[in-house]
Structures are given as C-alpha cells and as structure tokens.
Recover the amino acids of this structure.
C-alpha cells in the first residue's frame, strides 16, 4: 500500500479540487445545486479515487481507479468549459484551471509507473 499523499498526481488533483471550490463560490446562487455541485463532486472524485486506488494494494487496482479519476477529470473539463460559456468564469481563470486539470491528467502514467516500481 502506497501513501497516496506522496503521489504527485494526488497532490495536483487535491490542489485542483481546492481551486474549483474557490471558483464555484463565485457562481450564481441558483447554480448551488446544479453546476456548482456537479463541478465540486467531479473535482473531489479525482483525488478520492486516487486515494482509494492506492489503498487497494496492487498496481492493477490503482490503474483501475486512475481510469475512473481520469473520467472525472474529463467531466470537470467540460463543466469548466460550460461555466466559461455561461459567463460564470472569466477567461483567465478558465485558462489557469484548465491547464491545472491537464497537468494533473499528464501525471497519471508517471504516478502509476512509480507505484509499480515501489510495489515490486
């Protein structure tokens, strides 16, 4: 079992989750149970699945949960785009968070490879 907090992908996705929480605080109140909730759940699902996968104890289980986390990241990318198009997010904020999301996604294969190396 690997300490998920040491995984770069978890660290980046945790920071992304915190950024999404701050960003959605500024959304219109009528979105509280709509887009705000969806984005927060998608964002939180990413590090949550990484943590769960790392606790399963095998590289194949971690890979499965990284795949689930990847799906949540794709959901979040779309929701962020929708928020921008609805004028809930300024372009500069969108660009920064979109880049953070893509950076997190790029770390997944590296984290899996490192996990596999430490497990063997």
């Amino acid at each position: 079992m690997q300490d998920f907090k040491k995984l770069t992908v978890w660290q980046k996705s945790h920071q992304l989750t915190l950024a999404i929480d701050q960003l959605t605080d500024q959304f219109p109140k009528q979105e509280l149970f709509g887009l705000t909730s969806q984005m927060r759940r998608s964002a939180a699902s990413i590090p949550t699945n990484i943590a769960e996968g790392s606790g399963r104890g095998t590289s194949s289980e971690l890979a499965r949960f990284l795949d689930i986390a990847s799906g949540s990241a794709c959901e979040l990318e779309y929701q962020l785009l929708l928020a921008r198009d609805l004028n809930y997010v300024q372009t500069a904020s969108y660009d920064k968070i979109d880049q953070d999301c893509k950076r997190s996604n790029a770390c997944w294969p590296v984290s899996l490879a490192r996990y596999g190396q430490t497990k063997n």
Remarks:
- Residues 115-120 have pLDDT under 50 and may be disordered.
